[in-house]
Amino acid sequence: MLxxxxxxxxxxxxxxxxxxxxxxxxxxxxDDPVQRVAVVTARFPTAGKDELLLFLPxxxxxxxxxxxxxxxxxxxxxxxxxxxxxAVEQPTEQRWRIGTRxxxxxxxxxxxxxxxxxxxxNQIAPSFAVLCGPPTFIAEVGALARPHDVRVELPExxxxxxxxxxxxxxxxxxxxxxxxxxxxxDAPLVLGAIETSAFxxxxxxxxWAVFGSPGEFDHALLVKHLQPIATEICHSFGVVPFERxxxxxxxxxxxxxxxxxxSTLVSLHPRQTAxxxxxxxxxxxxxxxxxxxxxxxxxxxxxxxxxxxxxxxNLWISEGLTTWIGDLAVVRSGxxxxxxxxxxxxxxxxxxxxxxxxxxxxxxxASLGVWTTSTSGVGxxxxxxISYYVKGPVVGFALEARLRTATEGAHGLDELxxxxxxxxxxxxxxxxxxxxxxxxxxxxxxxxAFFERAIxxxxxxxxxxxxxxxxxxxxxxxxDARARERWKLEIDPEATAAQAEHLxxxxxxxxxxxxxx
Length: 517
Known about the structure:
Helix content is 31%, strand content 22%. It starts with a helix and ends in an 11-residue tail after the last helix. It folds into 2 domains: 4-193, Immunoglobulin-like (Sandwich), CATH 2.60.40; 277-506, Neutral Protease, domain 2 (Orthogonal Bundle). Helix 4 (277-288) packs across helix 5, helix 5 (315-332) runs antiparallel to helix 6 and helix 6 packs across helix 9. The chain contains 14 helices and 23 strands. It is globular, with a radius of gyration of 24 Å. It has helices at 4-16, 181-185, 219-237, 277-288, 315-332, 338-353, 363-368, 370-373, 388-406, 413-424, 432-443, 448-455, 464-470, 497-506; strands at residues 24-29, 37-45, 51-55, 73-80, 85-86, 88-92, 95-99, 105-113, 123-124, 128-131, 139-140, 148-153, 160-162, 166-167, 175-178, 189-192, 195-201, 204-212, 244-251, 256-259, 263-268, 472-474, 489-491. The strands form 5 sheets. It has an 8-stranded mixed beta sheet. A 5-stranded mixed beta sheet has the order 17-18-19-21-20, with helices on one face. By secondary structure, it is of the alpha+beta class.
């Protein structure tokens, strides 16, 4: 994973040097949407090699589950540029070996079954198509760093393409260039009937690109909320890391979302309302991922090995803290009030405290075992596992208050993540020790006991410090109240003026930084 400056340098060099001639070129087409099949033609320069070894990923970054996309490849044929057929072998499920017979270029043509509505799969519907990178683009093993170009050919009557990919320098419509394969597969494409609304955050264009069947969903109201939420997240990290960001919003009878470098693909339901706190939290979470995990990441999550899933103990940071960040952004933006935000935090705590698995699996173990004990962090055995989506934001709540208590309100998690972003974003990544050392640095004291208890043990979290600092309490309930209801937060009626000020300051919008990039 490269820093933004290095990627831009590589991109600029590719535009005006012989390297551009060595680009991989893809053409995507859908002949008949009814058939739900996409055809891909990929042109690979051989550089004098006797054979090319091609592969298709087995997983999508951000979704921690092996999915083996090669199962949706219906046929793969190869030829030289002048049409001479070349032999194709398939030594493994996701790899193909092609003898070049001295050809300067190999043209691989393959068909893809596109019948999935998930945010990691491909779908072709009567009025739109979703083509995600990992299940779409076959690449050459060991040759991912060069530019990869994509041309899209639309079915008759289709007009639009929405994607975060950069336009190709030739300026041709629906022609794109990615600086490398990582960038290519980190930018889904949506084709067909798309309605786009735009807004800006500190000069960066943001697009809300809608497809599917949204019904009467109020997109104008949603965008009205999204703009200050996105602004808050950018300000909290102290940077706007892109010139353009795209929300690919599909109303297609499914739920879910997946983060990408400069975009997110989300599946929504038309019955949701544009001012629903849960929806805004979900969108804030996906947007915050552009900072936390796509740029600031555990060292194990990059550069990607698309055939071998990585393991890290720090998905509680990449996912759990992203939820905490997103929820704070929603209330700081003014989209919801304090009571609604307290309800969000209460929901997280209640979910944790009603999960028996919290006493069986540590947060670090939940992250390390994600590939085998859950479906990308959800759906695990509640008796034996805990999700980092559940416990992670609650640790965020506790760590936020701990840092603010230690610094007398001067710094919290915002400062920790800003420092982490400045030191470890891009190609560097952070280790467990480096991230936790930042907490020591900010607090001015060793925080290892906190992390050992919260992350690497099954001991119950201690909420007393957070309640004390913020002037909160758990509402009194009857003895037969449901477990989650016993963890409902409310403002303590006996809170001091100082405690009330602590809560107020936590929920204030973050000022615009002096430099946005």
